[in-house]
Design brief:
mainly alpha; 12 helices; about 70% helix; globular
Amino acid sequence: MIKIRLFNKHRVVKMISLLLVVLPGHGRTEGLTYADTVSNADVAMLPPFCRAWKKADSWDEYSQLTARLAKAPNPQHMCPGLNHLNHAVNNLDKAKKRYQLKAAIREFTYVLKHSEEFSSRSVVLVKRGQAYESLSENDKAVEDYLAAIEYQNTHSGNKKIVSVYGFLSDLYWADHNREAALQALNEGLKISPNSKFLLKKKKKFK
């Protein structure tokens, strides 16, 4: 006779609740949310609007906080994306690192797809590019870095992300394209001639 093991109802409910919590970018539900699982140490590494995302007890309160702090499109996806990327940077476990990077890419892609025009779009493109680069998907990383440069050059009022020129240069260098690597650095130095980050990278061309 085959014995069928019945699951405890409360245990099943708890397992489902935990699953909902860890799904990247999962919105607010009754009880815990992804934001609730983020530690204060993690939040300290995120932008101010993500601190509001963590602090708010309701979407109404969150909307009021973010309206005062920053214009952040789809923060329920952007903040988890940034947090996943931060965790991936120092993760020595290859499988977990890969999971965090892919999770970050999913979140950033959602933001880019659903918010075409916003002041920090170039930032999201650079962050997604870094995630792709860490996964050795260099072609996609180059595409994002170039898109970030184009966006910040064609939209006034956007803060220039000078470091993206260095990231782009490194990928060209790795692809043995010395000329393109040097050109990327020179373009960045036109914007910020005293950038220590770019000047240090340029030394290898001497």
